[in-house]
Amino acid sequence: MPDKVALEGLEERWGQTWAEHGTYTFDRSRSREEVFSIDTPPPTVSGSLHVGHVFSYTHTDVVARFQRMRGREVFYPMGWDDNGLPTERRVQNYYGVRCDPSLPYVADFTPPHDGTDGKNVKPGDQVPVSRRNFIELCEQLTAQDEKQFEALWRYLGLSVDWSQTYQTIGTRAQKVAQVAFLRNLARGEAYQADAPGLWDVTFQTAVAQAELEARDYPGHFHEVAFHTSAGENVVIETTRPELLPACVALIAHPDDERYQALFGTTVTTPVFGVEIPVLAHPDAEKDKGSGIAMCCTFGDLTDVTWWRELNLPTRSVVGRDGRILADTPEWITTDSGRATYAELAGKTTFSARTAVVDALMASGDLLAEPKPTQRKANFYEKGDKPLEIVTSRQWYIRNGGREAPGRNLRGELLARGDELAFHPDFMGVRYANWVNGLNGDWLISRQRFFGVPIPLWYRLDEAGEPDLGDPIQPTEDQLPVDPSSQAPAGYTEDQRGVPGGFIGDLDIMDTWATSSLTPQIVAGWLEDEDLFGRIFPMDLRPQGQDIIRTWLFATVLRSHLEHGSLPWTDAAISGWILDPDRKKMSKSKGNVVTPMGLLEQHGSDAVRYWAASARLGTDAAFDPQRPTQMKIGRRLAIKVLNASKFALSFGGDEPVSLDGGAVTEPIDRAVLAALATVVDEATTALESYDHTRALEVTETFFWTFCDDYLELVKDRAYGREDAGLDPASVASARTTLGLVLDVVLRLLAPVLPFATEEVWCWWREGSVHRAPWPVSAPLREAAPDGDPHLLAAAGAALAALRKVKSEAKVSQKTRLSAAVVHAPEAEVALLPAVLADLRAVGGVDGELRFQVGDEHRAEGELLVEAE
RNA sequence: GGGCGAUUGGCUCAGUGGUAGAGCGCCUCGUUCACACCGAGGAGGUCACUGGUUCGAACCCAGUAUCGCCCA
Fold this sequence. Notes:
Shape: elongated
Helix content: 25-40%
CATH topology of the domain at 584-610 and 621-786: Isoleucyl-tRNA Synthetase, Domain 1
CATH class of the domain at 584-610 and 621-786: Mainly Alpha
Largest sheet: 7 strands, mixed
């Protein structure tokens, strides 16, 4: 035991010891019932860790440590999400390169930069490199990032088994993702389709529903006249006049009286002179504009609904490059219409809009000056141009958003949501809302480079046209494959792209298509079925509420499709970190606090305390200027060190007794009885994922223990002569201190792993983190007649005696010649049992009496020492 | 517009039917022989608002307002 205790340096010292001793290493010999397995969120290594990560990962670690102490063998791996666009972007900027898949591989390539201090390298200055070179750089950079992340997690004290890490782009993840996809394909759960989809022109990729973001976007309402056969005007309002050549119908609400007569008739489009029907559909909004809308291929998602439900023709005019298609479409037949279209061809939608507006003005069909407006437009969450809707061939996985043949997939997935225990439970509603709101299957094709390739090839016929309907599939033992650089079995590389040969699918999968398989990746599916059987279905998925609709849902889906089960039984949803203005914390808000700085400043235990004092699902405020909770946590950790040192010191060099039979004094038994209740409450709370409640009852008890009990018995524990006590009562106090400490250290260990371990090593064997979680039975056995009320009564009496001195403005050490404590009747009956201790701590030289009174109050004669 | 959550002392939050709680901050005092990253004592709230249910509501019900998040 050190003379002077300190928190400084505990993180490094114990981090190293735990690593050397394999304290958190998973023992795979244990059976499924003995294992507690956690599907830890893999952080995006290319991003940076912020206080929100520290917050939510601490919640998980508290659970892990609790379960480990309860005797479960905890499977607690860490993954690194290095898949997808964030990595690509970071590599582009860090090394100043961009991927050009048409280039050959260059061995020993040296990139133009090696870190640019967060500054972006302009696309024009990026050196084009081959796909393989690009991916090598991705791997290099993520390896660096992983090291930094791991150092932070270790410093924070996460009890992760660091031999179990994985990468979402690693070979194993690729194999799992490709096998799962091929099995989806074999069961008819994956399919390809030409379908209208959201397309990001900048990134040249299809975008899934889950990646959408609706944002305000400035535009103009244009009042445009269509013409009936009788020569009357039908006026619509549109923000996208450039889609006029793609117009396939006018649509109004079926109940809208203004348009009843028009339903079933046709009108002609202005300028282009195309005859189109006027139709009714409930999605048309009566009070929006003129109440009748033009339906195009495709202006927005409502257009897609109408196209599908009203069986409208497909008349695309916008290409994947975001420009008007070059060839004049055959449905435009008038000479002037074809001439106008020819002027639009090749223009961006923006320029085309101006050209169409000019044409409308010339024809007199633009009835008013365009009115500025803010419209909602769909954006790719990482993009900055509104998405276009284009038709393309993409791969989908069924998710209940569209009817699945022969099954009620949506119903099955809703049932899985009910089966899953959400913490807090109301988070389950978000899952159900999302599943109920899905209106399409899951688009998984991505037109990017750094990701898991779709493992398929297509045969080319004699004309060089691909046979998309019957792809060539690898066998599972060949996986992972990259069809863009490997030839399928039975073909050679020189047949690539040649008539009679093959082409590879160039697309990669959506990152969620891999991340949704983290349980399978980490648990050894396909590779180590023995391990898989001991871990899967897993116990816990911790994550943020924002990705319930993506990660959580997709994981449930994949597990349901592949294994017919939930991937885990419980989902723990952490809240947000809010800044002092109660806004979601983000880097753009200029929060300069780095997690490592925070940990170094306050100590990891203190930061963990802050995190652990926020309940699951509840947002927590964090003001870097006033880290109140962290200071409280730090105070608690220091108190643990100091109070423990004090409590363990009374017996000198003698070993601390933990023999419950030695506890004889009523007040000592009262403390053990109170502690037994604390143990039960903390245990129940942690079992139901309520770590704040567990911390609260433990912490409250601990402060009472320090402020009242420890003060009350220290004279007795010292064994001082003037206390006039027999050796048994001294032993009783010392044993109680040992027993309490033994239990409290274990109760606090999940939240304060460093301070508790430090104290544990002074007097106990092994690690506190492998010690069994305390149970109340031995405490109740040692104190069968222990009455917690006595502890409360003694505390109140002590406070009353202190108040006498505090109000007299004298030192607490001032002695009293005699004193009377007034207390409720029930307490007066109890207090004589602790008379000697109260006299000692209160410094009462003469008589100390107890009297029935309405409130706690003491009076005493002060012996004021001569100054 | 829809869903979910929140609204309790200056601040951060507990408290699911029986006379308002904690910590921080504040005020007063003490203390360095476990702990100045300390101790003791104290002041401070008509529980967002309006109705309703009930003997009784911070808590249950209905509505309103404000804030946050997610989705349109």
